[in-house]
Amino acid sequence: MRGVRAPCTLRRMADHPDRISVLAIAGSCRRRSFNRALLRAARARAPAGVDIGEFDPSRLPFFDGDVEEAGDPEAVRELKAAMHAADLVLLVTPEYNAGLPAVLKNAVDWGSRPPRPQAWDGRPVAIMGATPGRLGTALAQRSLRESLAGLNAHVMPQPRILLPGAARLFDDDLRLTDAATAERLDKFMAAAAEWARRFR
Question: Count of H helices and E strands in the chain?
Answer without folding.
Answer: 6, 7
